[in-house]
Write a structure and sequence with these properties.
two-stranded antiparallel ribbon, mainly alpha
Amino acid sequence: MITATLTIGAILSAALLIVSLILVKATPKKSYVAYYPGFLFFAAGLILLLFATILDSKVTVYGDAGLGGLGIACLFAAAVSTMVAAVVDAYRQVA
């Protein structure tokens, strides 16, 4: 279960990081659009964790990972991509 959660988290982090970096480069300097994917994944992670507690993790995704594991992976991906997008956006504001 831990391996599946880490694998899903790594894949989601890479995908979300690419989307966030593209949005940072494509939007104006005063725009917050680059942070929206991270916020959406954060909300999705919290909702998945909520459903994991309600449904007692009877739903499995990707073999071993349940809804809780997928929620944790979404939260991890959101945190990593939002932090990296914030740093890239801060350097873009200075230049």
